[in-house]
Amino acid sequence: MKKLYIQRYTDNQRINHWLVVVLFGLAGFSGLALFHPNLFFLTQFFGGPQWTRIVHPYFGVAVFLMFLLMFVAFVGKNLWRREDTQWLNAAPKLVLHADEAAMPPAHKYNAGQKLVFWSMTVCLLVLLVTGVLFWQAWFASSVPIGLQRVAVVLHALAAFIMSLTAVVHIYAAIWVKGTLRAMTQGNVSAGWAKHHHVLWYRDKMEAARRDVQAERL
Ligand code: HEM
User: How far apart are CA 61 and CA 27, in angstroms?
Assistant: First the structure.
């Protein structure tokens, strides 16, 4: 029997996602190059130390702007609902015992995915605001040095949390079989949808049924 696939992302949303990934990688590695002398060797990939310092903030702003597009597209489906708290309470059973049967039904995104989304949003916002405060080429000269010092610490902290969040996100995308194709091909199997996001699956099926009915009229 032919396998049924359901669209999860449009082409534009996937291009947007992978642009964010590439820009986040560039901003992250150029940032690490400036963070500690042991990582100084990374500057060679960005045209040397001066260029690394010049391009890093622009990569950062570009990630933020690209992520903003994703934020607008996905925020509606990432708003917290009462069922998400129940899902989160049951999450240890999933993580420690792989007990998926214990999980409450999820919409398009489960509570774990929503936390990743909000963590990324807050971290990128903090990275942008703090980064601007000590951006020497444009703004830092009019910012008090004490504030710049606080901004540097918060910038590093937000970058650390953002990187941890990205690791969790990538691990989950690989760990949950059949998820990667959502961002590579734009669709998921009906089985995947029913298994992991049954409420979203039902909405999609209902919409498809209505489309067929409308065509028949
Ligand atoms: C190699 C790295 C990455 C891989 C393999 C990956 C993979 C994926 C996959 C498969 C999905 C779809 C999940 C689903 O629909 O259930 C997704 C969604 C998403 N990804 Fe990534 N991703 C990566 C890096 C990143 C990075 C670095 C960011 C942000 C800076 C990011 C932000 C997002 C967001 C916001 C979504 C939409 C999910 C939501 O709205 O909750 N991803 N990613």
Answer: 9
Q: What is the pLDDT along the chain (217 residues), one digit of tens a residue?
A: 789 999 999 999 999 999 999 999 999 999 999 999 999 999 999 999 999 999 999 999 999 999 999 999 999 999 999 999 999 999 999 888 878 888 999 999 999 999 999 999 999 999 999 999 999 999 999 999 999 999 999 999 999 999 999 999 999 999 999 999 999 999 999 999 999 999 999 999 999 999 999 988 7
**What domains lie within the chain, and their CATH numbers?**
5-216 (1.20.950.20)
The rounded distance, in Å, linking the Cα atoms of 33 and 39 is: 5
CA 55, CA 50: separation in Å to the nearest integer? 9
Ligand 1 shell residues, CB under 6 Å? 8, 17, 20-21, 24, 67, 70, 74, 78, 109, 113, 117, 120, 166, 169-170, 173, 179-180, 182-183
Residue type, 47: G
